[in-house]
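Narrative of accomplishments. A recurring question from our advisory board has been how the design workflow behaves on a single, concrete structure rather than in aggregate. To address it, we present the structure tokens for one chain from the evaluation set, followed by the sequence designed for it. No filtering or post-editing was applied between the two.
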């Protein structure tokens, strides 16, 4: 497969793993890169640039293939502006292939990254933001529909509408996310104007992902109606309907006064503990609607190769219509 995304990153298949706080560790990242995609680790689980550098070195010990780093650039209690500066500096020094940014624009870091040969993409949920990141000089845009796990923009536009609109607006390469789970969704995304896809939820249900088996089997049991948007008054998220998400919904009704209780309920530490213990009601689990199409835990290699095979088969079969 050859697209602008395989060319940009020097990878075999235009399949990228999205950053997932605590989930995307060195082992999962390396497995995805070894299988021909672009693996990813998450900067924000570290509290210093040196912590991130150690994680980058861990990936480099496992693979010599390209991989990326997600930096979620948002006001944080744990991460100061200086630490964010260090994250970008370390990525430039270590010459990682790509940085996937979400949240605030990373404008001031772009010249340094380009000088080091590092690519930079931004995840957006609106056409106006895609146009802006093109103007700012990013190398590619990640178009995230409201189906995605994580933090979809509260414009709430689906991938099927957002993606072709962005493709009609920008000239830089496009990566589609939100509902991307297999070869059929990949074929659809390519037809709608994408040069590659980004999956996150799908890679959680993989042999190489470290999270508790009770969470992996849950992902295979859940269906597409089992997630909801929550926390929309502060930072919208999509997660599985469980006790913690219900608690957050109740707290939100109380307005800003409940802010600190909401922050406690959705804390990253709580998520980490639940991912380790397998407690399905232990945290707000960010998962995409794509759970409705995930039925088995597979190796990363099988996920990627099956996706590519079905994508090719689907595109060829549909071409025959004409
Ligand atoms: C468990 C989980 C954690 C996530 N954490 C982050 C994060 O820290 N930063 C970020 O930019 N996106 C995060 N995301 C969003 C993903 O990178 C990606 O945009 C989204 O999940 C893609 O849609 P999908 O879930 O349908 O594959 C997370 C998603 C999940 C499922």
């Amino acid at each position: 497969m050859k697209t602008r995304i395989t060319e940009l990153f020097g990878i075999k298949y235009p399949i990228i793993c999205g950053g997932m706080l605590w989930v995307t560790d060195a082992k999962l990242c390396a497995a995805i890169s070894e299988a021909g995609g672009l693996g990813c680790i998450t900067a924000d689980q570290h509290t210093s640039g040196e912590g991130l550098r150690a994680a980058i070195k861990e990936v480099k010990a496992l693979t010599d293939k390209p991989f990326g780093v997600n930096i979620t650039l948002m006001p944080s209690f744990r991460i100061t502006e200086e630490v964010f500066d260090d994250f970008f500096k370390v990525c430039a020094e270590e010459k990682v292939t790509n940085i996937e940014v979400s949240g605030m624009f990373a404008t001031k870091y772009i010249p340094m990254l380009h000088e080091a040969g590092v690519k930079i993409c931004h995840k957006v949920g609106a056409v106006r933001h895609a146009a802006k990141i093109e103007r700012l000089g990013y190398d590619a845009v990640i178009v995230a529909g409201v189906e995605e796990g994580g933090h979809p923009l509260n414009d709430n536009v689906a991938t099927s509408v957002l993606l072709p609109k962005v493709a009609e607006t920008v000239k830089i390469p496009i990566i589609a996310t939100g509902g991307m789970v297999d070869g059929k969704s990949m074929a659809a995304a390519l037809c709608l104007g994408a040069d590659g896809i980004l999956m996150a939820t799908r890679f959680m249900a993989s042999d190489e992902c470290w999270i508790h088996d009770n969470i992996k089997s849950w992902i295979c049991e859940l269906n597409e109606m089992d997630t909801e948007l929550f926390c929309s008054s502060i930072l919208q998220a999509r997660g599985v309907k469980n006790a913690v998400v219900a608690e957050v919904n109740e707290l939100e009704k109380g307005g800003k006064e409940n802010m600190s209780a909401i922050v406690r309920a959705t804390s990253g530490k709580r998520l980490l503990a639940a991912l380790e213990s397998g407690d399905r009601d232990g945290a707000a689990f960010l998962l995409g609607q794509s759970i409705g199409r995930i039925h088995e835990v597979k190796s990363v290699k099988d996920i990627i190769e099956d996706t590519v095979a079905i994508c090719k088969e689907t595109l060829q079969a549909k071409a025959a219509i004409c």
